[in-house]
Specification:
The complex is a heterodimer of chains A (about 270) and B (about 350).
Chain A lengths: L7 H21 L3 H6 L11 H8 L1 H34 L5 H10 L5 H14 L6 H25 L3 H10 L3 H12 L1 H17 L2 H5 L8 H5 L3 E2 L2 E2 L1 H21 L4 H5 L5
Antiparallel strand pairs in A: 1-2
Chain B lengths: L2 E10 L2 E11 L4 E5 L6 H9 L6 E6 L2 E2 L10 E4 L11 H11 L4 H14 L15 H14 L4 E5 L7 H15 L5 E6 L2 H7 L2 E6 L2 E7 H6 L4 H6 L6 E8 L2 E3 L5 E3 L10 E7 L4 E2 L8 E13 L2 E8 L2 E8 L9 E6 L5 E3 L5 E3 L1
Parallel strand pairs in B: 3-8, 3-9, 6-7, 7-8
Antiparallel strand pairs in B: 1-2, 1-4, 4-5, 9-10, 11-12, 11-14, 12-13, 14-20, 15-19, 16-17, 16-19, 17-18, 20-21
Helix pairs in contact in B: 2-3, 2-4, 3-4
Chain lengths: ~270, ~350
């Protein structure tokens, strides 16, 4: 008797998991009037107007471009800076290495709001306010430590003898690092890049504080709920759907290593 | 090709990893570094290769001082105990990598790699990645990479330790043949006394960062210079006991004493440490000269045709290794017979005085 209902628990789980996302998708194909007026499980008047608006209105699609630009910039900066740091932490012993390593992680423990004001002041003073690089650098504050931790975990999984073998074979350090070491930990680099991408993509507070028009992120555009024509819920839903896509796209490539990434490369 | 270490030491922080070591390794069969784990075999090899710079002392190779020369410029090859290959490259590229670095011509490289692969029976695997291979094949790949370039110095750091015994025996037989007539200095590290005896050549016995003795393998086995070397070069561990020589007799304790064998008749009276290898003590009497001792059985290990028996005399542990199956009961008192002509005598400073 019990066995006939074994499908029930996973089914409930999946429904709860997928319902909000379905509802977002559902709303994005409705008009705002329908959303506010009736309760329906699927769009009664199916419309693509919401998406059309986003892809044609520059205030909307520029939001995506701005977000993508600073997220990619940040990912490149974070991983590039973290690679040599992680290598040093995994291969050398130096004074205070363990403390420095732990201190890196503590940077993640402070809420971004703590840094919002000083960053705003600092970036304004050096005239970086409202630029993509400003947001990318600000996000590096918590993405570089994360990338260092993840990469250090992956690098420490590579035996030191691999380095020795390469030197014995005649490789110089740089040639070994780029030709052998980086390909060996490519999964780790992918995971680190994914986490940098994800955290930078979802971070709103710093991105909003450090930009006004020229580098305004999509999330900031989305918080503008009301316009001259009232609430545009359908439009917001469509923007939401489009915001999920890059993350889902990137996660596909590192799906096999995500668990190891959450454990900071230490499985 | 000779490798000479002159008073080489290595300190890491406040710890001494290698005490002043001087040794001359030549191109005469294998040079074996024999020692337990943490004896400093790998560290010594890293010093020889130039991966680690000695704290003091000099490394000379082929008449040149190479102390400060980085490993890349030394023409060395090395195989580690773990199977180390480049995981992102195919087996072919793995083997070819030392040749690629020096920019060897394509057709020549192809030929060299294929020849070596043939020699190590790796030809069918050339297109695969190391992770798709078995342990034995991975280690063959590493060996091939070490063999493909004409290295002057080849360092093999327990290359067979992680292989199963069939493969180990097979490769152990092949290895010396591979390096024959290559004109290179081969250093081989192992923890197993049996392995160094099988490989022959010269052996350096290592103990806690010191080379206790260096010489032809067989000589070291027969005449270990001191107690430490004897201990390193004996498996199961060598039996030791305090004895004294009084006139023509060796006295072990109140009950056991024997007429000294004429080989040792020049020994002066006084206290000694007696060393007897386990296979010179047997539960079976072989000649009238055997000395009879009695002990309480602790453990009996039967391995096919051999018995290794651990027993106590008083509070001292002894080991006997002999042919045949002797399934003694635990705790039983049994007789053992020592071959009195196979004794090693060490003086109070643990130096060998008679063998």
């Amino acid at each position: 008797m019990m066995r006939r209902f074994t499908w029930l628990v996973p089914a409930i789980y999946i429904i709860f998991l997928m319902l909000p996302i379905y509802w977002l998708l559902n709303m994005s194909f409705k008009t705002t009037n329908e959303i506010l007026g009736t309760f329906s499980l699927w769009p009664q008047e199916f419309t693509l107007d919401n998406y059309r608006k986003i892809f044609t209105d520059s205030t909307w699609y520029n939001g995506y471009f701005n977000s993508l630009i600073y997220v990619v910039l940040n990912t490149v900066i974070s991983v590039t800076a973290a690679l040599p740091a992680a290598y040093a932490f995994s291969r050398y012993r130096f004074l205070g290495d363990k403390h420095l390593f732990f201190w890196l992680l503590t940077n993640r423990m402070a809420p971004p709001a703590v840094f919002a004001l000083p960053f705003f002041q600092l970036y304004s003073a050096v005239e970086l306010f409202d630029t993509h690089i400003a947001v990318a650098l600000a996000h590096a504050l918590f993405n570089i430590p994360l990338a260092v931790w993840i990469l250090e975990g992956f690098m420490s999984g590579v035996p030191r003898e691999l380095d020795d073998t390469a030197y014995v074979d005649g490789y110089s350090f740089s040639r070994f690092f780029f030709k052998i070491f980086l390909p060996t930990i490519s999964a780790g680099i992918g995971v680190a890049a994914f986490f940098c991408f994800m955290f930078s993509w979802v971070e709103l507070l710093l991105a909003k504080t450090l930009t006004s028009v020229a580098a305004k992120p999509i999330a900031a555009t989305m918080t503008r709920t009301a316009s001259t024509s009232g609430y545009e819920l359908g439009l917001l839903a469509a923007a939401g759907v489009l915001t999920i896509i890059p993350g889902a796209f990137v996660i596909y490539f590192v799906r096999n290593y995500i668990a190891k990434g959450f454990a900071l490369g230490r499985v | 090709m000779t490798l000479i270490l002159k008073d080489v030491t290595l300190n890491v922080g406040a710890e001494t990893h290698i005490y002043p070591t001087s040794v001359e390794l030549a191109e005469h069969g294998f040079n074996i570094l024999l020692g337990t784990t943490l004896a400093g075999k790998t560290t010594l090899m890293q010093l020889m290769a130039g991966l680690v710079k000695p704290t003091s002392g000099e490394v000379w190779f082929d008449g040149k001082n190479v102390t400060g020369v980085p490993v890349q410029k030394r023409n060395v090859s090395m195989v580690h105990q773990q199977f180390i290959n480049y995981p992102n490259m195919t087996v072919f590229e793995n083997i070819a990598s030392p040749l690629r670095v020096v920019g060897m011509e394509r057709s020549k490289l192809q030929k060299r790699v294929e020849h070596i692969a043939e020699l190590l029976k790796m030809t069918p695997m050339l297109g695969r990645k190391p992770n798709e291979l078995s342990g034995g094949q991975q280690q063959r790949t590493a060996l091939a990479r070490a063999l493909v370039k004409d290295a002057d110095l080849v360092l093999l750091d327990e290359p067979l330790a992680n292989l199963d015994f069939k493969l180990r025996e097979e490769l152990r037989e092949e290895l010396p043949k591979m390096f024959e007539h290559r004109g290179c200095c081969v250093v081989y590290a192992t923890t197993e006394p049996m392995e160094s005896l099988l490989l022959g050549g010269h052996t350096a016995s290592l103990h806690e960062g010191r080379i206790t003795q260096f010489g032809e393998t067989e000589k070291i086995y027969r005449k270990p210079a001191d107690l430490k070397s004897a201990r390193v070069f004996s498996d199961p561990p060598i039996n030791t006991a305090s004895v004294s020589k009084k006139g023509a007799r060796i006295v072990l304790n109140d009950e056991v004493s024997w007429q000294i064998h004429e080989r040792y008749k020049d020994l002066a009276d006084g206290p000694y440490t007696l060393g007897i290898r386990p296979h010179h003590i047997s539960p079976v009497k072989s000649t009238e000269e055997n000395v009879h001792i009695e002990g309480k059985i602790l453990v009996t290990e039967l391995s096919g045709s051999e018995s290794t028996i651990h027993f106590d005399i008083g509070d001292q542990a002894w080991v006997s290794q002999s042919l045949g199956i002797h399934p003694f009961e635990l705790g039983a008192r049994k007789s053992f017979y020592i071959q009195t002509d196979k004794c090693l005598f060490f003086d109070i400073s643990e130096q060998l005085v008679a063998a």
